[in-house]
Amino acid sequence: MVVRTRLAIAACALLGAAGCSGVEPWVKPYERQNFADPIMAADRNPVAASYLNHVFEAREGARGALGAHGGGCGCN
Amino acid sequence: MRLRSLPALLLLAAGLTAGATAPAPSPAPDFSLPARDGGEVRLSSLKGQVVMINFWATWCGPCRKEMPLLEQLQAKYGPLGFTLLGVNVEPDSAAATAWLKSVPVSFPILFDTRNAVAESFGVQGMPSSVFVDRAGRVRYVHRGYQPGDESQYADLIRSLAKE
Fold first, then answer.
1. Within 10 A of B40 (CB to CB), how many other CB atoms are there?
2. Is residue A52 part of a domain?
3. Domain of A31?
4. Quick check: A60 contacting B, CB < 8 Å?
5. What backbone phi and psi angles, to 5 degrees, belong to B58?
6. Taking Cα atoms as reference points, which of B149, B139, B141 lies closest to residue B55?
7. Could you say which DSSP state residue B83 is in?
8. Best interface-test mutation with A: which of B124, B130, B142 has the largest number of A CBs within 10 A?
């Protein structure tokens, strides 16, 4: 039992060590212009998306839930 | 139980700290890049000079902010045997040439469109400035830019120029 726990702890430690040193961001700092590519946008059409968000927020009584300011009346 | 897991914890700690080691002076990887005013600039041809390689891009706000200050550094320390190289890392260099019309600089601007040089220097932030001494060794890497960092640049250039 003790041996098994020890093995488990050692395995966890090894995994932890590998996890800390192995993972690197794959978009390099000098490649960050790629984030501004239109393909990275969640909404292809920002004007239509903001209108739909407004409708959704007013209908759900959740004005402000998607980042807009205002009360729950749907009038702003 | 607590004592038994101590070696494992030590191993974990060693793994965590392994990434933060200070680099010893190593020879700067040589490169040759096309310059803005035509021709090529090779780093090894600048041996004997203190070289500051500044990696920048027009989408990087701090890079734009420090560019006029870099021009001042070049004007002030150029006579001491100091050369600044501005390496633009964008795949399309049109934005850089357009922007440099509003912020004129006299030091060479090089275009690393395929990011091979940025990769060979292991650039870990934008902007990054690599200080190469007269013997062609990387002595210091400065990541990022905050107002006031230019005095650190000046101190480094002065101390490297005295060697």
1. 11
2. yes
3. 2-59
4. no
5. -75, -20
6. B141
7. E
8. B124
> For residue A37, is it within any domain?
yes
Domain count, chain A: 1
Specify the residue for token string 């005095």. Answer: B151
What pairs with residue B109 in β-bridges?
A: B86
pLDDT at B79 over 80: yes
Please state, rounded to an integer, the average pLDDT across all residues of chain B: 87
Count CB atoms within 10 A of the CB of residue B46.
19
pLDDT tens-digit readout, B12-30:
444 433 333 345 789 999 9
pLDDT, average across residues A6-27: 61
Average pLDDT over residues A54-58: 85
Preceding amide of B127 cis, omega within 30: yes
Q: What is the pTM of this model?
A: 0.70
Flag whether pLDDT at B153 surpasses 60: yes
Residue A34 resides in a domain: yes
pLDDT (0 to 100) of residue B43: 95
- Within a domain: A7: yes
- Interchain contact A2–B (C-beta under 8 A): yes
- Name residue, tokens 């700092």: A29
What are the residues of chain B with a beta carbon less than 8 Å away from any beta carbon of chain A? 4-5, 8-9, 11-12, 14-16, 18-19, 55, 57, 59-60, 89-91, 115, 118-119, 123-126, 128
